[in-house]
Amino acid sequence: MMALTPGDPVEIMVGGDENITEAQMDQMRHELGLDLPLPVRFLHFVGNAVVGDFGLSFYHRRPVIDVLLERLPATIELAVAAMLVALAIAIPAGIAAAVRRGSLFDKLATTVSVAGVAIPNFWLGIVLIMFFAVQLGWLPVSGQTSNAINIPRVTGFALIDSVLWGRPDAVLDVLKHLALPAITLGTGLSALLMRVTRTSMIETMQQEYVAFATAKGLSRRRVLFHHALRNALIPVVTVIAIDFGSLLSGSIITETIFAWPGVGRLLIEGVTTRNYPLVQTAVLMFALFYIVANFIADVLYVVLNPRIRLAR
After folding, report:
1. How does pLDDT run across 63-107, given as a tens digit for each residue?
2. Is 122 contained in some domain?
3. Cα pseudo-dihedral 173, 178, 181, 184, rounded to 10
4. Rounded CA separation 265/67 (Å)
5. What are phi and psi of 258, to 5 degrees?
6. Nearest Cα to 177, choosing from 159, 160, 156, 154?
7. DSSP readout, 55-66?
8. pLDDT tens profile 25-56
9. Residue 8 counted as domain residue
10. Are the C-beta atoms of 179 and 78 separated by less than 8 Å?
């Protein structure tokens, strides 16, 4: 689809430089393989990718994999923060809704969860920016750190590097920049996890072993958290594993809104500059995220539920 849209990668790279002749531009197209038919270019990409060669980024003039790996820590950092936000909201709310099934809180939590799934990330992000950044001025609008914060990168993760260098001011700055995009990305997931937690808790509390534990005289708290919750979290954990892959690959819009320097924003930049090797490799990376996340979810389900076997 990108190849069919108007625009020439070489013209974008040249940037209107009148000193570059048409012959030189044709030579650049030949060096980049842009003069080959699209199916041939795709086959070349697949063949080279098998041996770990993903080509050069047209814009950065560096290996694509190096450019992506530089941005990957920021995407992982955002995904982990969004997952923590989702868990902090979903698990307590799901348990409370299940315990108070049919109550006003249960109905309210269910309604909010439905709305949370339906709200688009881009709309929520804009609302959060307008309220917390523009109106109140509590949180920054964009970026990963402030311009005044300069921390040498060791791991590539801004928060971890701030801790390693013993910079409390940098840690606070990173957390402030991380807050809005993490809430934006984690809200929809929290709504889904809350519904899964509630449903699983209700089903678990109806099992015979829970009734038996209650009949033995165990406290309600012990029955709830030791017997019911541990088994109810099995489907929740598998959903978490799958959705973490979705967070990694689904952060494109959120990263763009908040100018977060991750792979998602880099992918958008690659599309606008017709950076074919970068876009192809980024899409392949996102697909691998999904595959790995689904595999981990299957393994976790077997580990948490010994009655299930992979062979089956």
Report:
1. 899 999 999 999 999 999 999 999 999 999 988 888 888 888 888
2. yes
3. -110
4. 12
5. -100, 10
6. 159
7. -B-TTT-SBHHH
8. 777 777 677 777 778 878 877 888 888 888 88
9. no
10. no
**Which domain does 108 fall in, by range?**
64-304
Domain membership of residue 118 (yes or no) is: yes
- pTM value > 0.70: yes
Residues 132-174: pLDDT tens digits? 988 888 999 888 888 888 888 888 888 898 888 888 988 999 9
* Residue 231, token pair as written in the block: 């088994």
- Residue 118, both tokens: 């339906």
Q: What is the C-alpha to C-alpha distance for residues 291 and 225, in angstroms, rounded to an integer?
A: 32
Helix (H, G, I), strand (E, B) or coil at 52: coil
Domains contained in the chain, number: 1
Cα angle for residues 7, 12, 18 (degrees, 5° grid) = 115
Phi, psi of 58 (to 5 degrees): -60, -40
Interior/surface letters 61-98, b for 16+ CB within 10 angstroms, e for the rest: eebbbebbebbbbbbbbbbbbbbebbbebbbebbbbbb
State the Cα–Cα distance between residues 190 and 1, nearest whole angstrom.
33
151 alpha-carbon distance from chain centroid:
24
Six token digits for residue 67: 């450019």
What phi, psi does 118 have (nearest 5°)? -80, -25
By residue count, the chain amounts to 312
Residues 168/67, Cβ–Cβ less than 8 Å: no
Residue 132 in domain = yes
Tokens of 51: 């041996």
- Kindly report the CATH number assigned to the domain that includes residue 185: 1.10.3720.10
